[in-house]
Amino acid sequence: MSALKVTGLVKHFDxxxxxxxxxxxxxxxxxFALLGPSASGKTTSFRxxxxxxxxxxxxxxxxxxxxxxxxxxxxxxxxxxxxFALYPHLTIRENLAFPLRQKKMDKAAxxxxxxETAELLKLSHTLDRKPGTxxxxxxxxxxxxxxxxxxxxxxxxxxxLTNLDAKxxxxxxxxxxxxxxxxxxxxxxxxxxxxxxxxxxxxxxVLKDGKMVQVGTPDELYETPDNTYIAGMVGSxxxxxxxxxxxxxDANPEIASPFGDYSxxxxxxALKGFxxxxxxxxxxxxxxxxxxxxxxxxxxxxxxAEVHLIEPLGDVVILDxxxxxxxxxxxxPEEQAVAYQVGKRMTCGFDLQTTQLFAKETGTAIR
Length: 367
Prior knowledge:
CATH class of the largest domain: Alpha Beta
CATH superfamily of the largest domain: P-loop containing nucleotide triphosphate hydrolases
Oligomer: single chain
Strand content: 25-35%
Number of strands: 20
Distance between the termini: 32 Å
CATH topology of the largest domain: Rossmann fold
C-alpha cells in the first residue's frame, strides 16, 4: 500500500515553477530518498505535501485518502527542517512536549511519550537541559524527536544533516536507519548529497527543475541511468562522459571515441536506430577502468593513457588520465596505485558491457 501518492503536483512562486508536474509514490514503511541539487524543488515539495503550502495543481494522497485541501494538522505528517528550529528558552523535555500540549494531550500521556522518544533517540540524560547546552548532534536528535513524538504517518526530513560536521553526519545517518528499523515509519529524506541518498534510501527519486527524472533502487540508478544527468549525479567519482560519434553500418554499428572505436556493448542493438554521424556520449565508470599489463591477455578494449594527476583518498587513489586529449578518471586500490606516477604512460582496459551510451542532443540513454 502507498503511504504517499503525489500526482501532477505544481507550485509557482512569482511566476517560477518550483515544482513542475511532480509524480511521486512512496510505499508504506519505506525509507525513500529525494535527491537533487539546490533549487530542484525538494523543500517546496515537502512544504506542499505537509500542508504548509497549498499546491497550484495536482493531488496529494496519504494512505489512500485525498489530503490536497486538508489542513496540515489533519495530515499525520511531520517535517524536520534543515535548521534545528528549537525553542532556546525551553528545556529539551519542554521542546519535546510542545507539539503534544498543542494537541491538548493529558500530562501522563505526554510524559510517557517523552520517555519513549528520549530512550529511542538516546536523549534521556539531556531532558532537563536547554538546547544551547547540547551538542549539534543532540540538538538534531531533539528536532527529530519533536517530530517523532507525534507518531506521524509520514516523516519528512529536509536536508537535516547540513549543519553537522562529517563525523556527526555519519553517526546521525546510522541513527536514522536504526529509527526506521525500530519504528517502521515511512520516511522521505531530501538531500543534495548522493552519498546520503545511496546509503539511506531503499529507493531514490532524482529531482531536476521541479520534475522527477528517475526513480529506482541505488543499484538501478547506478547501473542503468536514464540520462546523463542521473549518470553524472549518482556515483563517486563521477562517471567519465566522453564525446563519441555513431560509425559503422546498420548490420555492425560502432561508436568512435577519441581513444578507440567500439562495438558489441549492450547498447549495440538500440544504436542501429541512429544515423551514421550522430553525436553521442560514451560513459565509463572510473571503477570499471583497470591497468593492463599485456593487451593480448585482456578480454576487452584497451587504450593508451598518461597519468596527469594523482588524488590519494586513503585506501583508494584516483588517477586523472589523458587519452588522446580526453580526460578520464580511474580508481585503484592504494597498494596498486603506488606503481604509477604523474607522467607515466600506461595501458588501460575496460569491460564494454559495463559502459553507458547516451544521445548527445537529449542526454537520454541508448539501450
